[in-house]
Amino acid sequence: MTTADREALVRRLIADVWNGAREATAHELIAPDCPGLGGSGPDGVLAWHQERRESFPDLRYKVVDLIVAGDRAAVHWRAAGTQMGQFGPVAPTGTVVSYSGATFLRFDAEGRIADVWSVNELFQLLQQLGVELLPPA
């Protein structure tokens, strides 16, 4: 698998799975033992994104920058959507939010995504929803 192939795979993951909720694509691209926030494998990745879409039904991710090196990739992304459902302890607000994050991926020998790890601007997102964040006393 070439660097261009891996880049195309990551872009397809974002377009088809993160933005499109296409289960078949998740099962094609993600290894069965890939750890995820919502469990392992394709179903774990789908569950996490489904939960996020319940809070933000129109949430869309855009690739800002993508770097692929060997069996690894790093994606800087930007997301935007409207909070129409419960998000953790925050009741629906109807607020449009926009926030950034980065996702790091590792590919297995078959070219599937074997590991995913993400960080994002959760505090910025919560502030946009009107949550007051106070340091402990």
Summarize the structure.
It contains four helices and six strands; from the N terminus they run H-H-E-E-H-E-E-E-E-H. It is an alpha+beta fold.
Which helices and strands appear, and what pairs or packs with what?
Elements: H1 3-18, H2 23-29, E1 35-36, E2 39-40, H3 41-55, E3 60-69, E4 72-82, E5 96-107, E6 113-120, H4 122-128
Helix fraction, binned, reads 25-40%
> Distance between the terminal alpha carbons, to the nearest Å?
53 Å
Largest sheet: 4 strands, antiparallel
Shape, per Cα inertia axes = elongated
The stretches of 5 or more residues where confidence is low (pLDDT under 50) are none
Give, in order, the helices and strands: HHEEHEEEEH
Q: What would you report as the Rg, rounded to the nearest angstrom?
A: 16 Å
Secondary structure tally, helices: 4
Total beta-strand segments: 6
Based on secondary structure, the structural category is: alpha+beta
Sheet with most strands: strand arrangement = 3-4-5-6
The oligomeric status of these chains comes to single chain
Instruction: Estimate the mean pLDDT confidence.
Output: 93
Work out the strand percent. 25-35%
Please give a structural write-up.
The structure is a single chain. This protein has 4 helices and 6 strands. It is an alpha+beta fold and 137 residues long. Helix 1 packs antiparallel against helix 2 (23-29) and helix 2 packs across helix 3. The mean pLDDT is 93.
